[in-house]
Design brief:
The chain is α/β, with parallel strands linked by helices. The protein folds into 3 domains: 99 residues, Arc Repressor Mutant, subunit A (Orthogonal Bundle), CATH 1.10.10; 111 residues, Periplasmic binding protein-like II (D-Maltodextrin-Binding Protein, domain 2, 3-Layer(aba) Sandwich), CATH 3.40.190.10; 93 residues, D-Maltodextrin-Binding Protein, domain 2, CATH 3.40.190.10. It is built from 10 helices and 10 strands. A 6-stranded mixed sheet has the order 4-3-5-10-6-9, with helices on both faces. A two-stranded antiparallel sheet has the order 1-2. Helix 8 links the parallel strand 7 and strand 8. Helix 1 crosses helix 2, helix 1 packs across helix 3 and helix 1 packs across helix 4. It is globular and about 70 Å long. The C terminus is likely disordered.
């Protein structure tokens, strides 16, 4: 005879929203404002959550109460549950109101303007009934928005560590090459730089700096930008060197000098695990899996007006 399972604690979505808010806002007052309750109601709700899971979630840090490091699994669970609940409510709204499909996709800029342009353009042409929104941002923000239920699909640089509640699959690999100002003669690595590169915290930046160090190139940073086209333009102006995907345009009246390829990065397609999904999301996902990297044809509409 199987043992009787302990009843699950009666947690509420509201309590989980409180937990996420205090983890992401700098003060409890701002967290309370974010979820639309008083600070005392927020505190009472979190105390009840702590009581129901029967595990201490907070600790004192000076005069503040902060989330314990040991409570991170609870925070991950809260984020996943909130995102999945939003998916469920979106699905129920569409069924009840017979609304058209909706897809919220996020991409890093090189994916949006180079690798995935044809896929997005043909999807818009073939499915004008679908409410398609495209957000362009750095990988870390896109993955956070995906996890929090604000995006349905993301194309980004492969994260260095697995993200709880997310699934990723490889879409393509792209080589990154040294790029120098017009007229530069690329000599020994010890003479390369200074560098125009991605901001601190970027996975691509870490790949680049590691590759430069291995080659003996000094890693002197002159400027930063999340946007490859901005970095390329600064190189054209002679402000420094960079390392960018070889797919980034380098021509023009004063072409950038392209040097050796020094590192490879993986672009992935990310989605939330175990969610109710709009069929339009599944369709775009399949198109990305099979069509990334295809050229934009003359018959394909430009994706520039995608909301």
């Amino acid at each position: 005879m199987r043992g009787v399972r302990q009843p699950l604690p009666d947690l509420t979505i509201r309590q989980l929203e409180y937990l996420v808010a205090v983890a992401e806002e700098p003060t409890w007052a701002l967290a309370a404002q974010r979820v639309g309750v008083s600070p005392s109601a927020l505190s009472q709700g979190l105390a009840e959550l702590e009581r129901r899971v029967d595990v201490p979630l907070f600790e004192a840090q000076g005069r503040r109460r902060v989330l314990r490091r040991s409570a991170m699994p609870m925070l991950d669970h809260a984020r996943r549950t909130i995102a999945l609940t939003r998916d469920l409510m979106d699905w129920s709204d569409r069924v009840r109101e017979a609304r058209v499909g909706r897809v919220r996709v996020g991409m890093i800029d090189v994916a949006a303007v180079l690798h995935c342009t044809a896929v997005i353009a043909t999807f818009r042409r073939d499915r004008p009934d679908v409410d398609l929104t495209l957000s362009v941002a750095p990988s870390a923000k896109l993955l956070d928005d995906l996890r929090n239920g604000e995006l349905d699909l993301v194309v980004c640089v492969e994260p260095p560590e697995p993200r709880a509640g997310l699934e990723v699959e490889e879409l393509l690999r792209e080589s990154l090459a040294v790029m120098a100002p017009p007229g530069t003669i690329i000599g020994a690595p010890a003479t390369w730089g200074p560098w125009l590169t991605f901001p601190a915290g970027s996975h691509t930046r870490e790949l680049i700096l590691t590759a430069l160090t291995r080659r003996g190139a000094p890693a002197v940073i002159a400027a930063e930008s999340h946007q490859p086209d901005v970095l390329a333009q600064m190189v054209r102006l002679g402000l420094g060197w960079t390392v960018l995907p070889t797919a980034v345009p380098t021509g023009g009246p004063e072409p950038i000098v392209v040097g050796p390829e020094i590192v490879e990065r993986v672009l992935v397609l990310a989605r939330r695990a175990g969610t109710l999904r709009d069929p339009a999301v599944t369709e775009l996902e399949h198109r990305l899996q099979t069509g990334v990297g295809q050229p934009l044809t003359a018959s394909s509409p430009s994706p520039s007006n995608t909301r």
